[in-house]
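Morning F.,

Quick status update on the modeling queue. The single chain you submitted on Monday has been processed. Sequence for confirmation:
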Amino acid sequence: METQNHPTGVGLVGAGTISDQYLENLTAFPDLAVRFIADLDTERAASQAKKWSVEASGTYEELLARDDIQIVVNLTIPAVHVEVALKAVEAGKHVWGEKPYALDRESGRQLIEAANAAGVRVAVAPDTILGAGIQTGLRQVQSGAIGTPLTGLAIFQGPGPESWHPSPEFLFARGAGPLFDLGPYYLTTLVRVFGPVAKVAATASQSRAERIIGSGPKAGTNFPVEVPTHISALLSFESGASAQCIFSFDSKLQRAGFVEIAGTEGTAQFSDPNEFTGDTVLHLGGEESVVIPAQGSQYGRGTGVAELAQAISEGRKERVPGELAFHVLDVMVSTAEAAESGSFVDVNSTVEPIELLDPQWDPSAPSILA
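Structure tokens below.
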């Protein structure tokens, strides 16, 4: 008897701009079947469902009531990430969520405990960590190409997204800013290299209390800035390694995707952790460097949903688990506390090592069989 692919049912909540990036892949991966799109604006949900040939749309309550949906993809705004995820968990569904995982430790811990009690899984972006770029860099470090990794440097700096984003207000509200909006990409990468963070020190500043929208129908409108827009952090890892990080919306000089790992025998320059591909460059002494082409999945956002579905089917741990996201959240909250207190803050959570992907892993190849 011939076996057939048995896709996992997916429902997506939050039909905003980023949903296109997800739906392009979610509707193409054979291990997934997108069956419903939900949004507070049901007309927007219907429009996205029509655009991507999804069979149904409507309210979140209607999504949760469907028995043919096993994974909820949570693309709502950060302020309601946990609230939306908890409803899915209560309905017995697994969750893939956009970052940040939560805005505080208490709600983040509540979500993990609820998922464990319900016997479901909560996995959280960034799934860029599964892309060919970062996976290649991680494999080089793990192979010993630069010796024992000792220190890291991660930098994202630019003038801020208000010049190009038509509705940038949420990016300067609580739960965002450069630390919570961009930190997960860089911090998740550093944790994958060095293991859990033990403590952190930081400074933070805010260049101005208001900013001006620079494009779209609201161009010229002032809006308030609620969070620091420049953060400098020093991380100390349980392994004894350390890393320096800068996350800034206050620089006219754009410097993005900057992650370097220095070891006893060389330095690895990773590709942009906010992208899914890009070469790794090894500096091993002398004038010449070694370019390691990216090897692995070239797909973008939604890759983690496919990997989660396969992990559930195979009865193994997913590679971007909630525990990893909670630890990164703990690091970010500790960073904000350290900047406010002017002293080191201990990071009390931890996370277990996570296996790298096989370089041949391809989310476009069916693997969940009936």
